[in-house]
Amino acid sequence: MERQTALVTGASRGIGKACAVWLARAGFDLAVTARSVKEGEEREHSSTVAASNTKPLPGSLSTTADLIRAEGREAMVVPADLLDRESIEAAAASVLGEWGRVDVLVNNGRYIGPGHMDRLLDTPLELLDAHLEANVMAPLALIKAVLPGMVERGTGLVADITSSVAWMDPPAPAGAGGWGLGYAMSKGAFHRIAGLVQQEVGDSGVVLVNIDPGFIATERMFADMGDFGFDASAGAPPDVIGAVVAWLAVDGNGAAWGGTVVPGQQLCHDQGLLPGWSGPVPNPVDA
């Protein structure tokens, strides 16, 4: 059998890390990209312009790569920054140059930094630009890089990790249980990619989907988001979405979902993909 490969963005922690590990279990070699290569690196991850927070978050590409190798699969670490389009394009070129193909692309990474939880009048316009670059243009650059090969082979999966902020208004203002305009409008634009491009690839065999993760208890959610009204302990584990992505990537399971929104937690529960998990949790967006 030909090698099966996947490229996952934002794979240093959270949903991206879970997707990488579950795809490895499903038989894929993994290329993983993010900014944090080693544990303990300092990065700005404050969600507001009012404060700075560079305290290291748990997780790194090196740690994720070790977990992939523990599953018996090959791991390629390709550091990149979603705000640096050249680095994103170079990462894709490295993977294609080394492995010759990408069978699954998981666009999970997103903008992390000030403006995420700020109100419009407090948000410099350049931070809105940053949201659009990281959350829309960077994923598009990766899709454009890997899609031709997928179409040529007649198979492939592009899984875009969307968010219900793309179509729902917040229950409160940013900083008080809601979220900033940059996050919502960029996720809204990102959300439109899968359905439109699915129409373009038609009957090629390539599948593009949006996966709505719901409320997930990631490392950053625990570290940062309590101050903004989000209780991470109420979230579902990242493995829920990792299991869903791996299920969609094998045995033609993704075909029926092409161009649509996959309700990640509900699908995981319905298919029994994560034994012992009690099922979907309430989403603060729906409150």
Provide a descriptive summary of the structure in words.
With 287 residues, the chain is α/β, with parallel strands linked by helices. It has one domain (5-286): Rossmann fold (3-Layer(aba) Sandwich), CATH 3.40.50. Helices cover 39% and strands 11% of the residues. The protein has 8 helices and 7 strands. A 7-stranded parallel β-sheet has the order 3-2-1-4-5-6-7, with helices on both faces. The relative contact order is 0.15.
Quick structural gist:
By secondary structure, the protein is an alpha/beta fold. The protein contains 8 helices and 7 strands; from the N terminus they run βαβαβαβαβαβααβα.
Topology:
Blueprint: E1 5-9, H1 14-25, E2 29-33, H2 61-70, E3 75-77, H3 85-99, E4 104-107, H4 125-153, E5 156-161, H5 181-201, E6 206-212, H6 219-224, H7 239-249, E7 261-263, H8 264-271
Parallel strand pairs: 1-2, 1-4, 2-3, 4-5, 5-6, 6-7
The end-to-end distance, rounded to whole angstroms, is 47 Å
Mean pLDDT: 96
| Name given to the CATH architecture | 3-Layer(aba) Sandwich
- Number of helices, where a helix is a run of at least 4 consecutive DSSP H or I residues: 8
Query: What is the radius of gyration?
Result: 18 Å
CATH class: Alpha Beta
Principal-axis shape = globular
CATH topology heading: Rossmann fold
User: Number of folding domains?
Assistant: 1
Structural category: alpha/beta
Low-confidence stretches: none
Q: Largest sheet, described in full? A: 7 strands, parallel
Q: Give the H and E element order.
A: EHEHEHEHEHEHHEH
Assign a percent range to the helix content: 25-40%
The CATH fourth-level homologous superfamily: NAD(P)-binding Rossmann-like Domain
Largest beta sheet: strand ordering: 3-2-1-4-5-6-7
